């Protein structure tokens, strides 16, 4: 048995509690602040065994120190960035597997947003935790990486099964949807999703998780093959996927 509990943090961050009922093991993904995580654990009568960080940014690691000291939890993070992950105990890289209770976690190196970013994939639970690499209807800014790196990272995630649920690090979906509509307005799947997202946000409800298959149908950063999208960013059909991705990312940065 497996449970994922979404924990809103700061202004628009999400942390996630992962609980293996049988093994009685609990982890939190990307705790930007300790307080909301502690309250969520108390509400569920849980302790904390592990802290999983996708990358080093403070709004994903800000709760590490306090949570580690309170619960004696171990911090798990990317080997490529272990020097910047507060209190890290276990460093992992692509191809390595790690177990949370009875559930195997696969590690994907997904640089682009930062040079050491990783993504955590639980195949038996159909869940992927993408941090700031892939958002619903968006992707992370390229603070430390190149368009080639980010496109390769997104491509890795896209090779996972379509039914995989995407748990990302921020509630950015409505602003992402507005940009997506500006570059691919004739996309019917996008138009339908935009209406649903707007309604969810009006009600104060989260738009995450979303399925990977759905994201492929309306996330502009996963759709370099779209001729409408290419036209919107002033590219022709001979442009490569990386060139198209880079143009879309630049357009979003200026949106």
Automatic annotation (TrEMBL):
The lineage of its organism: Eukaryota, Viridiplantae, Streptophyta, Embryophyta, Marchantiophyta. InterPro entries: Clx_II_MBL, Glyoxalase_II_hydrolase, HAGH_C, Hydroxyacylglutathione_Hdrlase, Metallo-B-lactamas, RibonucZ/Hydroxyglut_hydro. Residues 12-170 form the Metallo-beta-lactamase domain. It comes from Marchantia polymorpha. This is hydroxyacylglutathione hydrolase. SMART domains: Lactamase_B (SM00849). It holds the Pfam family Lactamase_B. Coiled coil: none annotated. Keywords: Hydrolase, Metal-binding, Zinc. PANTHER family: HYDROXYACYLGLUTATHIONE HYDROLASE, HYDROXYACYLGLUTATHIONE HYDROLASE GLOB. Pathway: Secondary metabolite metabolism; methylglyoxal degradation; (R)-lactate from methylglyoxal: step 2/2. Transmembrane segments: none annotated. Its cofactor is Zn(2+); Fe(2+); Fe(3+).
């Amino acid at each position: 048995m497996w449970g994922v509990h979404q924990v809103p943090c700061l202004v628009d961050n999400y942390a996630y509690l992962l609980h293996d009922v049988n093994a009685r093991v609990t982890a939190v993904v990307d705790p930007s602040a300790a307080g909301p995580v502690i309250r969520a654990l108390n509400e569920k009568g849980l302790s904390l065994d592990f802290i999983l960080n996708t990358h080093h940014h403070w709004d994903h690691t800000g709760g590490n120190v306090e949570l580690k000291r309170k619960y004696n939890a171990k911090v798990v993070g990317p080997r490529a960035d272990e020097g910047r992950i507060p209190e890290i105990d276990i460093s992992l890289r692509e191809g390595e597997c790690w177990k949370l209770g009875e559930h195997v976690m696969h590690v994907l190196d997904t640089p682009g947003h930062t040079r050491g970013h990783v993504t955590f994939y639980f195949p038996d639970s159909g869940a992927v935790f993408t941090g700031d690499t892939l958002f619903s209807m968006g992707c992370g800014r390229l603070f430390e990486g190149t368009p080639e790196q980010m496109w390769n990272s997104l491509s890795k995630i896209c090779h996972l099964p379509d039914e995989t649920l995407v748990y990302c690090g921020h509630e950015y979906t409505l602003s992402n949807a507005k940009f997506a509509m500006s570059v691919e307005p004739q996309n019917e799947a996008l138009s339908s999703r935009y209406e649903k997202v707007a309604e969810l946000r009006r009600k104060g409800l989260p738009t995450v998780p979303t399925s990977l298959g759905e994201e492929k149908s309306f996330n502009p950063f996963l759709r370099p093959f779209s001729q409408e999208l290419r036209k919107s960013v002033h590219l022709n059909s001979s442009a490569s996927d990386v060139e198209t991705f880079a143009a879309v990312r630049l357009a979003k940065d200026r949106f």
